[in-house]
Amino acid sequence: MTEITTPITDEVINSLNVGDTVCISGYIFCGRDAVLPKVVKLAEEGRLNEINVDLQGGVIFHTAVSPAGVGPTSSNKLEIESSIEPLSKYGIKLHLGKGALHKETVDALNRYNSVYAVIPPVTALLGDKTLEQKVAAFPEEGMEALHILKVDRYPAIIAAAHGRSIYE
Length: 168
Prior knowledge:
By secondary structure, this protein is an alpha/beta fold. It has a single domain (2-16, 27-161), classed as fumarase (Alpha-Beta Barrel). The protein has helices spanning 10-15, 36-44, 78-89, 103-111, 123-128, and strands spanning 2-5, 21-31, 58-62, 92-97, 115-118, 130-137, 146-161, 164-165.
């Protein structure tokens, strides 16, 4: 089990391989289909500072945050998967979710030295590992707003790295 703390460096990403198990600690962003396109737009316009968000070395968990907790949503939804390449370009090093990604997305992860990890859909387990949560931006989206969590040892499995995928 590889322990990873945010922000994540290129050296950490270079050491990961498909099938590795990791535990993620530190601050991570949470977003899904309603909010990730908005974050991409702000990044492309150079306006992330307006929401006080720094993506460098960051983690994006494809989830909503509700009173019931957090659990992964399908990362291959159009709005989510299409955000992976630009968010990697703007500094995200690890994308967390569930499901297979298209080969083009796996290649884009490789191009920007980012990885994708799947996380078990075990909301109760993650609740105990979530230390803090707050809305970072877009509160009008409710539980699908961009959230930031402080986590301790979130378990995940590297599913795409260095141009390879466990789904091949």
